[in-house]
Amino acid sequence: MEGSSLLSTSHGWLFYILVIGIPVLLLSIFCCLFFRKPFIKSLKGKHVFITGGSTGIGLAIARTVLREGAVVTLISRNASNLSSAVEYLLGEVPSTTKECIRCEVADVADYAALSSAIERAFTWRPIDVFVCNAGLTRGGYLGDGQLKDLEVTVQTNFMGSVNALHAALPLLKRHSCNKPVSIVITASLASLFFMYGHAVYTATKFGMRGLAEGLRFELLPYNMKVSLICPGFTSTPFLDEADKEEEICKLLKWVNLYSRAWAESAEGVATHTVAALKAGSFLVTTNPLGLVLATLARGFVPSDSLPRLVFELFFFIPFRLSSMIIIPIFRLIVCRKRAAATHVSPSFYDL
C-alpha cells in the first residue's frame, strides 16, 4: 500500500509537470520572445552618431533616422564627402534642417582626433545611438598585397571600432543611467564566412564579431544593447574595390555568390539596422544567405526570436550536411581556375 501511494504521488507530480508546468514554461518563453518591449520606442529627438557616415550604408542609416526625427553626427575622414552628404540629406529629407546634422572630419584610425570629435558631439547632445560603420577593403591575395594596404584595412575596420568604442563608452554608460543607449557595429557576412581573396578583411570582420560578443556581456549591467549587423554584398563604393582584381572577382562569384546585379541596397540594410537597434536584437543578417550562415556560425549567441530559433534548429543538420558537398565543389573550382590563370597544373592533392 505504501509503495502504491508513493507511486501514485510521483505520478501526480508528473501529471502536474506535464499538464501545467511545461505549457506554462512554453507560454512564458513565447511571451518573452514575441511580446518583448522595444528597447528604443522612437528615434524622435535621439542623437545618432555614425562613423563612416558620409557614404554607403552609413549615409543610408543617417537618412533613415533623420526621417524618424533623429539628429545625427556624421564622421568621415573626407571633408568633401561630408559636404556632399549634408546636401544629399537635406534634399532627401525635406523636414531636416542644417541644425539636425553635425559633421566632424576625423579618421577612425586616429584616436586623438576621433575621441575629440566624440566629446564635442556628446557636448552638443548626449549620444543615444552609436554606430561603428567605417570600413574598407583592399582586395588581393595575402602574399601579393602591399603591407600598408593591409594595415589600413586593419586600422580602419577593427581598430577603428575599438578606438571609437574606447573613447565613447564612459560617456555612453553615464547617459544610459537616464536613457537607453544602443551600440551598432556594422560587420558583414564575412564575419560568418570568409570572403575569397580578402583574407585580412575577413579577419577584421571576424574580429568585429568577437568584439561585439564580448562587449554585449560587458554591458549587461547597463541599460545598453549591442547590435551586430551582417549584410551581404551591398551596392556601395565598397564593390568598386571588390571588382578591381579580375581573377578574384570571378572566383567571388562562385565561392561567395557575388553578383553586383544582386547586391543589396544600402537603404535596405539601413532599414534592417534601425529595426534591430530599436528591438535590441544582437546578430542581424539582411538577406536569405545570412539565414544559412547565421545558423551555422551562431555559436553560443542565442536567437532573438522564437521563429528564428525554430528555423535554425530545423535546418542546422541539413546545412551542415550541405557543407560536405559545397566546400569540395568550391575547392575544385578555385584550384582549377587558379591553375588556369597561373598556368600551373593542379596536383592530385589540390583536387
From TrEMBL:
Superkingdom: Eukaryota
This protein's record includes keyword Transmembrane: yes
Annotated Gene3D superfamilies: NAD(P)-binding Rossmann-like Domain (3.40.50.720)
GO cellular component, one term: endoplasmic reticulum membrane
Keyword tags: Membrane, Transmembrane, Transmembrane helix
Gene Ontology process terms (BP): 3-keto-sphinganine metabolic process; sphingolipid biosynthetic process
GO MF terms, alphabetically ordered: 3-dehydrosphinganine reductase activity
Name of the protein described by the UniProt record: Uncharacterized protein
Bilayer-crossing regions: 13-35, 181-201, 313-334
InterPro entries named in the record: NAD(P)-bd_dom_sf (IPR036291), Sc_DH/Rdtase_CS (IPR020904), SDR_fam (IPR002347)
The keyword Transmembrane helix belongs to this UniProt entry's keyword annotation: yes
